[in-house]
C-alpha cells in the first residue's frame, strides 16, 4: 500500500511539474553583422508581441515563457548548428528567426529533422515557403511574392517599362522572379534585369547597362530596386542622373534609417510592408505608444514583424492548449490573429501568413528625418493573388 501511495504521489508530482513546465522559445537571428538594425527591431518586436499577447504576464496558461537568444552572425552554417542546439540541447518548444534568407534556407531542414516548429521572421525569400518548405515551417513575415505583387500593382501601368536591380542571392533573385511574374499577370514585363553582390558599393557599371537597355524605349520608364543593408544604390544611381534617359527610380518600403535617402525622391511610389502611421487598429496603437515610451522612437519595419511572430506563438499555444508539435500545426493551419498590420492568416497550403500591404507615395515633411510614405491604398489579403509555390 505504501509503495502504491508513493507511486501515486510521484505520478501526481510529475503531472503537476509537466502542467507548469516552462515554455521555451529560441530566437535565432543575426544579432551582429550587416543586418544588425533589422535584428534588433525583430527581437524588440518579438518581446513586445509576447508581452502584448500575454497581457504582460509573459505566461501562457500559467506556464512561464523562457526566451533563449542565439546569434547566427548571418552565417548559414551557424544558423543550422544553433537551431540544432536549440531543439536538441535546450529542448525549446519552438523557434523564431532568422533575419537572412540564406540562413533561413539552411535552417529549414533542421526543423523537419527535429519535428519542431520554426516561425520564420523576417527572412523574405519565396523558396522558404516554396521549393524548400516543409510542414514545420510557418512564416509571419511577408514573402517575395507579397512584395512583388504589391509593387507591381503600385508601379505597373499602360506603356510602362521597368528595369530591376537586386542583390545576387536568394532575397534578390526570388524577389525579382516574383516581381516579373506579378508584372506579367497585369500585362507588363521587365525590360532589363541586373544583379550585384551584396557588398557592392560602386553601381556605375550596373547603372550604365540599365541606361543603355532603356534609353531608346518610349513611354514611362522606371528602375525598381530591391536591396537590403548598405551600399545605397538608390542614391548613387540617382547621382548619375537617370532622368536624362527619362528613368525614374522606384522601390518598396524600408526601415526608417534607410528612408532618410527617400527624401531625394518626393512623389516616388511603391508598396511597403509597414509604416507605423498607416495601420489603424488597437494592436498598432499599443505598439506605437509603448515603443515611443520605452525607446523614444516609433516602431520600425521589422518591429511590427517581430510583434506579429510573438503574438502568433502565444495564440497558437493557447489554441492548441499544448506545445506538442502536431497539435500546434493543427492549431496554426488556417489560424487568424491580430497584429500591428491588422488580421493575418496562416495559409494552410504553405503556412505563409496572408496579410495587407500598402501602396504609398513619398512625401517630404518638415521636421521629419525620413521620407514619409503616405498611404495611397491598402492592398488587402483579397487584393493580393499570392501564388502557392511549394508544389
Automatic annotation (TrEMBL):
Signal peptide limits: 1-21
Transport is among the record's keywords: yes
Keyword terms: Amino-acid transport, Signal, Transport
GO BP annotations, alphabetical order: amino acid transport
Xref: InterPro entries: BCAA_transport, Leu-bd, Peripla_BP_I
CDD domains, per database record: PBP1_SBP-like
Keyword Thylakoid: no
Domain Leucine-binding protein: 23-363
Homology family: Belongs to the leucine-binding protein family.
Record-given protein name: Leucine-, isoleucine-, valine-, threonine-, and alanine-binding protein
Organism: Shimia thalassica
Amino acid at each position: 500500500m505504501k509503495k502504491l501511495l508513493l507511486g501515486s504521489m510521484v505520478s501526481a508530482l510529475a503531472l503537476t511539474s509537466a502542467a507548469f513546465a516552462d515554455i521555451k522559445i529560441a530566437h535565432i537571428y543575426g544579432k551582429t553583422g550587416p543586418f544588425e538594425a533589422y535584428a534588433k527591431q525583430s527581437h524588440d518586436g518579438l518581446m513586445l508581441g509576447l508581452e502584448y499577447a500575454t497581457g504582460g504576464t509573459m505566461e501562457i496558461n500559467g506556464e512561464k515563457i523562457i526566451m533563449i537568444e542565439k546569434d547566427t552572425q548571418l552565417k548559414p552554417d551557424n544558423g543550422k548548428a544553433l537551431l540544432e542546439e536549440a531543439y536538441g540541447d535546450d529542448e525549446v518548444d519552438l523557434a523564431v528567426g532568422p533575419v537572412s534568407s540564406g540562413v533561413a534556407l539552411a535552417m529549414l531542414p533542421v526543423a523537419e529533422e527535429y519535428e519542431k516548429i520554426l516561425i520564420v521572421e523576417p527572412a523574405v525569400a519565396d523558396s522558404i515557403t516554396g521549393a524548400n518548405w516543409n510542414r514545420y515551417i510557418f512564416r509571419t513575415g511577408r514573402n517575395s511574392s507579397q512584395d512583388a505583387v504589391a509593387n507591381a500593382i503600385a508601379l505597373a501601368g499602360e506603356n510602362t517599362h521597368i528595369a530591376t536591380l537586386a542583390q545576387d542571392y536568394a532575397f534578390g533573385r526570388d524577389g525579382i522572379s516574383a516581381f516579373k511574374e506579378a508584372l506579367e499577370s497585369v500585362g507588363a514585363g521587365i525590360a532589363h534585369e541586373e544583379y550585384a553582390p551584396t557588398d557592392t558599393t560602386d553601381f556605375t557599371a550596373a547603372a550604365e547597362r540599365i541606361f543603355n537597355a532603356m534609353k531608346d524605349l518610349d513611354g514611362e520608364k522606371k528602375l525598381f530596386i530591391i536591396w537590403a543593408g548598405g551600399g545605397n544604390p538608390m542614391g548613387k544611381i540617382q547621382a548619375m542622373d537617370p532622368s536624362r534617359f527619362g528613368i525614374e527610380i522606384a522601390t518598396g518600403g524600408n526601415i526608417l534609417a534607410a528612408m532618410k535617402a527617400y527624401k531625394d525622391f518626393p512623389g516616388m511610389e511603391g508598396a511597403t510592408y509597414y509604416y507605423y502611421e498607416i495601420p489603424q487598429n488597437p494592436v498598432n496603437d499599443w505598439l506605437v505608444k509603448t515603443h515611443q515610451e520605452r525607446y523614444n522612437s516609433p516602431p520600425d519595419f521589422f518591429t511590427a514583424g517581430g510583434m506579429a511572430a510573438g503574438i502568433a506563438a502565444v495564440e497558437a499555444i493557447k489554441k492548441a492548449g499544448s506545445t506538442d508539435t502536431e497539435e500546434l500545426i493543427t492549431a496554426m493551419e488556417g489560424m487568424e490573429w491580430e497584429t500591428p498590420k491588422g488580421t493575418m492568416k496562416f495559409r494552410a497550403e504553405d503556412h505563409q501568413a496572408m496579410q495587407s500591404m500598402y501602396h504609398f507615395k513619398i512625401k517630404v515633411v518638415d521636421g521629419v528625418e525620413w521620407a514619409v510614405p503616405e498611404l495611397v491604398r491598402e492592398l488587402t489579403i483579397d487584393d493580393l493573388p499570392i501564388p502557392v509555390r511549394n508544389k
